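Deviations from the work plan: none for this task. Representative record:
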Amino acid sequence: MTAVEPRFTRDQPDVRRRKLIEATAHCLAEFGHAGTSVRAVAAKANVSPGLVAHHFKGIDDLIVATYDHVGAQIAEILGAAVDTAPDDAEAKLRAFIEASFKPPVLDRDLLAIWLSFWSLVRRDPGVRKVHKKIYADYRRRLEGLVAEIARARRFKIDAHLAALGFTAMLDGLWLELCLDPTTFAREDALRIAHAWVDDLVAGGFRALAVKRT
Amino acid sequence: MTAVEPRFTRDQPDVRRRKLIEATAHCLAEFGHAGTSVRAVAAKANVSPGLVAHHFKGIDDLIVATYDHVGAQIAEILGAAVDTAPDDAEAKLRAFIEASFKPPVLDRDLLAIWLSFWSLVRRDPGVRKVHKKIYADYRRRLEGLVAEIARARRFKIDAHLAALGFTAMLDGLWLELCLDPTTFAREDALRIAHAWVDDLVAGGFRALAVKRT
DNA sequence: GTGCTTGTTGTACAAGTGTATAATAAGGAA
DNA sequence: TTCCTTATTATACACTTGTACAACAAGCAC
């Protein structure tokens, strides 16, 4: 009854790919972009280096897949926060803010993934495409909420521009908070973001009322 | 009269360091973080690889020096925009905005430097220190202008928080514009940033009036 | 001129990189 | 069971990387 345990286990391609993607995320978090190589990922996944090449074109391809995967997770978390909030555009916008500034969104490890992905955007058209899609979805959701608030409160605003600015502010706060949590706290970021909504609700940003030409 | 030209020229250490720093900036812009090695920098500077090691501890040290150098340049450009603007806080703030969204500040090459520096912040305490200093200076200038506007217009605001939010928005717009200039234009970024100032001048962001506890 | 300091080169080496390859074996199908 | 597909391993190769080192020479002091 000496069960000979197999030297390795076979996985379905998509299962193995997901495991490799998760290993890549851990490597980026632990070693950064420079320390994330095919071999490092393979070691993290307890797998031979050759297997990585069998499933992905290279380390860049793997990072793109990781961004795609993690990006979808984040979008789902933020989406869930909006969906479970009361049926009111302002409440949903505030729920979005709350979800943005707590884990797992507010997370240094996540920034590490984002940074190495951003550094690929310029050189790789495929990467650029994924980045564009994720950000477009991200902005569309906020733009819809802003437009709905304006409609309910009966004032005009260029929701597209307003959402662009709001997205940038959230992004900037998130980035700087992940980079260096000592300069200001997440409570500060929350106050700033909520104050922006206060101002929007009060009919602020009148300068953005006219549709851009 | 066959002038034997010297095989190489000797530079003062600080001169050579600056040349290497500029070569590093070019490498980061052209090849990205992954393609910026001691050898690549040396080649770009028409210098032997060994010389880089003679002046800098390694490639990371060089990137930090590059960030420090370029960061000071940018601070100077933005500072000059503020200083040459009319003696009015609002005008100065708007001049700051204008300078932020045109070259050489709005520049993909600059983002490449910033990205590779950000990716070092987490791991290296020295890098963290430089980053902290540059951002503190950056925010202090904006905070001063915001406070002056509030004083002149006789309303209360937490200038610290307001400047934090404004900085984040400028950062976010700048980042996304450098990453992908096709989604929105610099004119959009300008409108958004100026609208924020409009709102500030009109006494917006009243939610930030109370000093944080 | 002469000598000295040190910026600079060229080379060498060990370690790490991506990738290709043949050999292996896990696990489902028949 | 037997066969077959292919996920997986192990190894090898050519290349790049950071770093160390001795030799060299530019340019200043004298």
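Residues 6-10, 37-39, 49-50, 53, 58-59 of chain A lie near DNA strand C (CB under 10 Å from a C1').
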